[in-house]
Amino acid sequence: xxxxxxxxxxxxxxxxxxxxxxxxxxxxxxxxxxxxxxxxxxxxxxxxxxxxxxxxxxxxxxxxxxxxxxxxxxxxxxxxxxxxxxxxxxxxxxxxxxxxxxxxxxxxxxxxxxxxxxxxxxxxxxxxxxxxxxxxxxxxxxxxxxxxxxxxxxxxxxxxxxxxxxxxxxxxxxxxxxxxxxxxxxxxxxxxxxxxxxxxxxxxxxxxxxx
Length: 211
Hints:
- This protein has 7 helices and 9 strands.
- By secondary structure, it is of the alpha/beta class.
- The strands form 2 sheets. Strands 3-2-1-4-8-5-9 form a 7-stranded mixed β-sheet. A two-stranded antiparallel ribbon has the order 6-7.
- α6 (about 165-180) packs across α7 (about 185-195).
């Protein structure tokens, strides 16, 4: 049995897509795969939690939203987008985890991508575009030293290396440092702060407009 830890984070705005995402995750897995599902949240009612538990067993991990008091957000991308930054600190029993946004539909098993070697990087994600002054979609930050900008909607996280190099502290400090300069919030922070990121195949973060 392959046991794969996977983390989601959302608030009540995204309850419906989250339930669809988790159901599709379970429906598309191999018999030999077991997912250990964690949901990071700040405010979810007990009724909502109970409904999720009719789908599968999950671990509920409550986060202190005050950590991101000074972080920019909007009505669509709420403070919950920052919760993924805390994964290595909140889920210490795994050295490597998958993180996924909830506005997705899973179409296959995740064993192969989870087993990708990310020993020497902080995380792996799908390349969004070249990182230079001519970016077409994302915001260019001179402080970002990576060759590419990577999407944060699906990540393989090297939690052990993140903890070892105190990357959470660095990202929270960058929330204060960059403030309103952040346009894509968590994506910007992960790309600016982490100078060691590797690529995974495009199929793991296909946007609906591209599809």
